[in-house]
Amino acid sequence: MANYSTADTLEKVSVSHMNNAHSDWLRALHFYKDELKVLSSRLTEIATKNTGKEVMVEVEHFENQFRIQLENIHNLAHEIKANVALVALEAKANSAGYIDGVLFTRHNELSTKFFYEEKIINELRHSFNQFAAEWM
After folding, report:
1. Which of 48, 47, 50 is nearest to 60 (CA)?
2. What mean pLDDT value characterizes the chain?
3. Considering only CA atoms, which of 35, 61, 70 is closest in space to residue 135?
């Protein structure tokens, strides 16, 4: 078994591992984008059937949140795709199939952003479903 120091493992990271994570994140973001569109359709249905001020305030709130999260998804997907391109360039330059620690640091930053966005989407979905159950 090879003995790797902490410095060795931080300096080089497998390209295939990063590509798998990038692909997973992009698929999930696409799913969340589609899901927000479905929730938006349900919101329109609620707004059509319930025109009271109390409901319309919540409808506006959810419209704004859906729009913000769709924009966040778009921006994060763009950042991930840009990182994919950088990883591809690094992989071409380094035939061993590993990238340097700088790109790994960026990968970790994107991972944090992705999981935060996922958390926000899940909380928004839960909140919306509670609202929808009350007004549908």
Report:
1. 47
2. 88
3. 61
